[in-house]
Structure formats: structure tokens, C-alpha cells
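Narrative of activities, Objective 1.

The group set out to show that a structural description can be obtained from nothing but a protein's sequence at a throughput compatible with the screening campaign. Below is one input-output pair from the validation batch, recorded exactly as produced.
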Amino acid sequence: MRPTLSRVRIFAALAPLTLAQCATTQPQCPAATTPAMPHNQHTHQGQHGRHGEGFHRRFDDAQRWAQVFDDPARDAWQRPDEVIRWLALAPDARVADLGAGTGYFAARLARAVPSGRVWAEDIEPTLVVHMQQRFVREGIANAFATLGTAESPLVPELVDLVLVVDTYHHISDRPAFFQRIRERLRPSGRVVIVDFRMSATMGPPAEHRLAPAVVTQEMTEAGYTAGPALDTLPNQYVLSFVANSQANPPR
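Output recorded for this entry:
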């Protein structure tokens, strides 16, 4: 059954936290001048690349961020259709889009898996409501907006793919976070991370970017093995990982 807007509002009342994508057509994300996230996690103090500290901002103005995240100019550098083709999803795949923002990727993913389902997760309540309204407006019946928390996303079923676009650098304690993700993956499930290169001409400030080697190290610590990568995007890397069955169980 499709979640109703009233259910989304209930979710919103339960977890008023803030995390979303940092996709932007501007040279850099604006400086983080807004309050830090209201939970007991690391704050950013110029050590973003050190063991899972996140770059925190607020994304509570859905209309403002829709103009940024869904700007048609984004397609030229984000290349969503190219990324989705590379994912080679089965028509009935189950997908979780974490940090889904305004549904930029989630709407496209839903069309790529007409017999499957897409769980578009974010921890900003206004963005969750925005996405649910978007899916209704665009007639997308197989995408569902869910409100997670900074520590654990809401993914209601086992999925074939967890996609994390322009969001990995926002997450605190990433190895622990992705350990918990493992229990929501099907046996052959993948995690795919899209984020900004150190040399990118756009994206978060340089001190808040993560090199692919750092991402791979953290995902290995979380119990994953690196898979194929896509290296054709102008400003971003695309890395894939599969859960290691011999790894320690999720915490």
C-alpha cells in the first residue's frame, strides 16, 4: 500500500533530523553556517576525512532545494541516466535511495524498475513530504518516501541495491552506519556510492571531500568487498560494494 501524506507527517514527527544530498550546480556547497544536527554525533571541525565524520547542514526548505537538486543543468554533470544504465537493474529490483533529497534519482530509478520498488529515504521531514507529493504528481506508483534517522535509515524490505548519491560525505560514523545497512541487503545486493572527486570543480568544500581510497577503506571496515567502478562522470566517482559474508554481524 502506498504511504499516505498523513503517514509521512507521522514519520516526520518522529525524527526531526536533517541530512540530505549536497548536489549543486554551484562551484561549492554554501558554507555550513546553520546549526549542527541535533544528535550526538561528530561536528565538522576540519577533520571530515577522519574515520567517518560527517559534513552537516540543514535541508529543511524543500522548495529552495528543489530548485538546486532538480535544476536541469545538473543532468550534464550528474549524468543520472548513464549511472542508472550502468547499474543494470532488473525490472523487478528493490532499490533504496539513501539521502534521496527531492527524489532526483528516485523518480528515475522507479521508471527503471517498473515491476520493482524504490524506497526514497531522507532524514529531513520536509523533503520526505516533498518527494511523496512529487511521486503522486508524476504518477509514480512504485516509489515510496520514507523518513530515516542519521544513525539508521528506514528501509522496509530487503533490497538489491542501496544507492548513496552525493550523501556519503554527510554521514557520521560511516563504518557503523554501513554495517547496519548490510542487514537490509539481499544476498546478492550492492551498495553504490556516488560522490565528488577531490579535484571536482563543484561539490562540497575540498576539506569535506573523501578520496575513493578512503571510501573503500571505510566500506571494507564495515564488512564489504569492492566491486566494479564507473569512471566516466566529469566530477564524481562511482564505487560499488558487496557485503562480505565472512564479516562480523551488523552492530
